[in-house]
Amino acid sequence: MVISGLPRMSSKELEEFLRGPHIARIAVVKDDGSPFIVPVWYEWDGRDLYIVARKRSNWINYIRRDSRVCVLIDEDKPPLRKVIIEGNAEIVGGDWIEIGRRMVVRYFGPELGPKYLEGSLDQPRWVIKITPKKITSWMVPPEFAGGKEAWHPRYYEPGTKWYEEYQQEKHQKKS
């Protein structure tokens, strides 16, 4: 597993973020080769990501055919943390209730969560395990909001102010 990105989260920050109640977006490859993205709940165990999917979801068939997936988990308020997990998905079974119980409490809270779950217990689901091959994380702390620190230098366009400043800084560090 490779963890990369700038500015990236520390291992502790990454673990904390992935254990939060964020909505993940999983991208799978459709039969015609085009991408398909669906928002999902997830659970992170410190090594793998787990998703509970409705048994009749079409995108499950895409995973059966091609296990490559990409998952985005992010937030829309500062510090704008983002994680991309590239890996392989595996349908590991239909015993979803225990993980489902944990998920509904995490996403809906201890009062509403169990009520939501009870109404759908007879609906079959699949548990999908995503084994990361690469994890990329980054964030934009509020103090970076107006500056080039939030951008990796490879994105600076030659001839622009940021590019020229970066070239000068790089040259000064060599001197």
List the helices and strands and how they pair.
Elements: E1 2-4, H1 11-18, E2 24-29, E3 35-40, E4 43-44, E5 49-54, H2 58-65, E6 68-74, E7 82-93, H3 97-118, E8 125-138, H4 161-174
Parallel strand pairs: 1-8
Antiparallel strand pairs: 2-3, 2-6, 4-5, 5-8, 6-7, 7-8
Can you describe this structure in just a few lines?
By secondary structure, this protein is α+β, with helices and mostly antiparallel strands. It contains four helices and eight strands, in the order E-H-E-E-E-E-H-E-E-H-E-H.
Structure description:
By secondary structure, the chain is α+β, with helices and mostly antiparallel strands. The protein folds into two domains: 2-141, Electron Transport, Fmn-binding Protein, Chain A (Pnp Oxidase, Chain A, Roll), CATH 2.30.110.10; 145-175, no CATH class. Helix content is 30%, strand content 32%. It has four helices and eight strands. Strands 1, 2, 3, 4, 5, 6, 7 and 8 form an eight-stranded mixed β-sheet that branches. A hairpin with a 7-residue loop joins strand 6 and strand 7. The radius of gyration is 20 Å and the shape is elongated. The two termini are 36 Å apart.
By CATH, the superfamily of the largest domain comes out as Electron Transport, Fmn-binding Protein, Chain A
What percent of the residues sit in helical stretches (DSSP H or I)?
A: 25-40%
Oligomer: single chain
List low-confidence stretches.
1-5
Structural class: alpha+beta
Identify the notable features of this structure and list them briefly.
eight-stranded mixed beta sheet; 175 residues; Pnp Oxidase, Chain A; single chain; alpha+beta; 32% strand; 2 domains; 4 helices
